[in-house]
């Protein structure tokens, strides 16, 4: 079985710069991968199957199966595959787990089925599944604009992170339709952002709607500069060493759980593919 990582991402900053006539939002964000995430296994089969099933998600609604079906339809491929998912990332946590799973599926099945599609073509397919999927296919830290679909390579520092999950699921549509969401952040260049303090425009609203996020973030801020990623609910603190991050994790409040990981400007997915 070919095993490939589906790494988590962090939004190192997230600014909402306006609302478009179609209801979507223009934003500016900086994506970086971490060396922790889900894992997918692929092997040839007559049918297309996924195991285990995710609680509350019908297989055909899972982004993994959707990605596989999309690749079959695009290429006319009639092969199947057994896909095994090792799920480590929380759903609705802002870590991009579903999008990363979809991207790894596109890349993995392209390799397994020997289709020969390039990354640009796979990324274009991925965009049909979600705005974040092309970034995971591309596999490099990126400054994203538009609705998150226009991106350019970036090289932020690669510190250690402590990522904490408050145990609540945040609805992204609910956040983006809330009238209290700030929508007027100035449009800046990446260089301007890199030389300014970073923040997440969704954070204050999520903390208001989900006190669990506010409480855990207040705790983590005692140890390191910390923010929310995406539309939440996960938060992250930035540390100079693994040891410092692990020490903070040992002091986490009862009921809270998280992981320590290194920031990666080159996705662990690309590293795994190099080794095949």
Keywords:
276 residues; alpha+beta; Ribosomal Protein S5, domain 2; Alpha-Beta Plaits; ten-stranded mixed β-sheet; 29% strand
Describe this structure in words.
With 276 residues, the protein is of the alpha+beta class. It folds into two domains: 153 residues, 2-Layer Sandwich (Ribosomal Protein S5, domain 2), CATH 3.30.230.10; 105 residues, 2-Layer Sandwich (Alpha-Beta Plaits), CATH 3.30.70.890. It is built from ten helices and ten strands. Strands 1, 2, 3, 4, 5, 6, 7, 8, 9 and 10 form a ten-stranded mixed β-sheet that branches. Helix 1 runs parallel beside helix 2. The longest helix has 16 residues. The N and C termini lie close together (12 Å). The mean pLDDT is 95.
In short:
The chain is an alpha+beta fold and about 280 residues long. The protein contains 10 helices and 10 strands.
